[in-house]
Amino acid sequence: MAKAASKAPAKTAKKTNTAPKKTTTKPYQQIEEACTSVLSKLQELELDYQLQSEINWCLGSYRNDGNPVGLYMMAERALAIFKAEHAAKRKGITATMIKDIEKVLKER
Length: 108
Fold this sequence. Notes:
Blueprint: H1 29-45, H2 49-65, H3 69-87, H4 95-106
Helix pairs in contact: 1-2, 1-3, 2-3, 3-4
């Protein structure tokens, strides 16, 4: 009782890639994005106006000359401030935000 082969073409399912695409980033794009988010968080919480202006200056400098050294220094200073504020239970500063900044600093 074997089945006879049918002459109708077999239906093929379309392959869809459901895995997220990996985005390639420029070597220092992560520190630029991190400093931009740090700056917005500092502005939102009204913390350390001097650091805000220095981060803003370093972002402009980086965009002009491509040298990220100042961004790394500012991220380290912001990290110390965020850790102190997180220890003081300040709203708006999360542990994941601190970990993200630490991750970017480690990938130098």
